[in-house]
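re: ur question from the group chat, yeah i did fold both. here u go
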Amino acid sequence: YQFPIGLKWITQPNITLIGDAAHLMSPFAGEGVNMALYDAYLLAQSFKNKENVIDILKAYEKKMFEVSEVHAQASQDNLELMFSNDGAEKMANFFIDMEAQLSES
């Protein structure tokens, strides 16, 4: 299951969402828990920088939407890559290239 990339909603004065509830995506970017923790950070920062609840939620959601869209697209791109006709070969080459880059360092 996944939400459409770029999903947004109208800010409500009494509720918001974080983590998978806010930006459900496939696991092919490996960002699930990272995004949830970052959402919590963004929300805390909004509380720190704003006083009005609706302003707090708007500030949080604006930043969260921007960040989650990037990771949702990466997740979708990786899903499509891995399940393409030559996905296994492309993934093997990806790891071979990564190993070569690490060896050069």
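okk and heres the other one u asked abt
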Amino acid sequence: MNLKLKKQINNVSIIKKFISFGVWVIAIVYILALLKIVLFKYGFTSELRSLNLKPFAFIESYFTEDVTIDVALKNVAGNFALFIPLGILLPALFKNINKKKTVFICFGVSLLFEFLQYIIGLGASDIDDVVLNTFGGIIGMFIYFKILKRIDIKIKMRIATFSFLSVFGLCGLLSLYLYQPNILPAQVEVINQEILEGVDAYSADIQTVCIDVDNDSILIDKSRRFYDDNYKVQSNEDKYIIDNNTKLFLQLRKYKYSPNGNIQKSTFIYNKITMDEFKNLIKKEEKSVNLWISEDNKCSRVLVVEKGDME
């Protein structure tokens, strides 16, 4: 064997190992994404629980309830597409898993997720989700055995499987970004926060709504007043004193929305404002405010919340 041929064989061996490693990385990322999307899409809550055992109830709901085509496609296509990678990864990674075992495992995983959602209270458990997930797994299984595996055997490496899963994953990520960005890690940009002098914007003693400002106090809506757990001086008064020593700040919240109205990105911009600017803001409309109360029961600082859309 000449040196050139030996070098080519070594290069092919390295590529094979890289592709195989890549498929395993995709599998790990997929499992984590599956857990997030199915079990923890609402965070680590345990207060959501519902059960539907009527097959194909989602079809009936589109005619009897106020469900948009956008929501319909997201629920049906989303549950279907979610298990296509599982139908590919199982036989691709484990040689002893055949077609029947692939379908059975896809069904079992989906059923387990719905069972956990109901028992723990993580979300809605629906037999239709099991049907759609399993059907997605079946399609993934056929894609692998009829197309990807044959290509991989011919070129003697998993490059077709790796490429398909990579492209499919990127398309899924783009779909989440456009239509369900709340599942993805939050995109939050904070600008000029140092102007608050190290104080956390969410550490206020009181969160409420300011409805008016007179010379020495702000008037608030008592029905929309919330005290911090550590703030013990709760009062029935509907006003709080402000003076020249009160520090006034503005938090401008700008949002970028996806096509279906979900927030894709939040930008928080902080600035100091004067008393006149504060009064002008309140004159336009009621504003959410965070209040820090001093020992003499005066507002030591006020943070006004203003909302707007990104340009």
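fwiw on the second one: The chain is about 50% helix and 25% strand. Helices lie at 3-39, 57-64, 69-82, 84-93, 99-120, 127-155, 159-179, 275-284. idk if thats what u expected
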